[in-house]
Specification:
Elements lengths: L1 H25 L4 E6 L5 E6 L5 H23 L3 H34 L9 H21 L20 H29 L3 H27 L1
Antiparallel strand pairs: 1-2
Helix pairs in contact: 1-2, 1-3, 2-3, 3-4, 4-5, 5-6
Length: 222
């Protein structure tokens, strides 16, 4: 299963470059809509080769994560804990790559068919807010399943000493992330403009602050 996950993650990292190349060389016109503003209107046209920017970012991101994973494995002194955290991290990366593939497909569509989204200022905002919200919800569900590590979770000084304290803090933090994700999705669908970002930031600050205070009080009582 872990080998399958690794292979699937690598495919998802390379796939955007493949279907983008097919689209650019065989389907796209030379000049495309390079940028669409928040009102759903094209405000810049450019070369079709700009379509390679997002796939390149996705590929570089995967390569960086790959080497971080290798370094973590070599420097770890607790193989069981490291493998568990890496497996959870692999799941997060795989799901993130699925979402990035969806975004890339949507970007290609907008570049080729800008009229389909012109004057529809809420489409991109709603899609992005849902994607960000889903990522928050996924992270919230994964955080309580991790063990103390250097990359993911509520890395608070009072929660790093034992697995029990780590679980208390990350369960509270996980709930905060899920609630923030739900608020982000709702704000994007209701407001239909970039104002959802303000709501998202406020939700993160409020929910995570409550989670930190709650976990601190509970851990100190123990």
């Amino acid at each position: 299963m872990k080998r399958f996950k690794a292979i699937l993650t690598a495919i998802l990292a390379v796939l955007p470059m493949i279907y983008t190349a097919i689209t650019v060389f065989f389907i796209m016109p030379d000049t495309v809509a390079a940028h669409i503003n928040i009102h759903g209107q094209v405000d810049r046209y450019g070369s079709k080769y700009e379509a390679f920017l997002l796939p390149a970012i996705i590929l570089v991101m995967y390569i960086i994560i790959f080497f971080i994973r290798k370094f973590t494995m070599k420097s770890s002194t607790d193989d069981d804990r490291t493998l568990r955290n890496l497996d959870i991290g692999d799941t997060v990366v795989m799901l993130l790559l699925v979402l990035l593939n969806a975004i890339d497909v949507f970007v290609l569509f907008m570049m080729m068919k800008p009229k389909a989204v012109m004057n529809a200022e809420s489409i991109a905002t709603a899609i992005v807010s849902v994607i960000v919200g889903v990522v928050f919800i996924l992270l919230g569900n994964i955080m309580p399943k991790t063990k103390p590590n250097a990359f993911l979770g509520m890395r608070l000084s009072f929660a790093m000493d034992t697995d029990e304290h780590w679980y208390i803090a990350n369960r509270a933090g996980g709930i905060a992330m899920v609630l923030s994700g739900l608020v982000t999705i709702a704000a994007g669908l209701i407001l239909r403009n970039v104002g959802y970002v303000f709501v998202m930031v406020i939700a993160l600050i409020v929910f995570l602050t409550v989670a930190i205070l709650y976990s601190y009080v509970k851990i100190k009582k123990k």
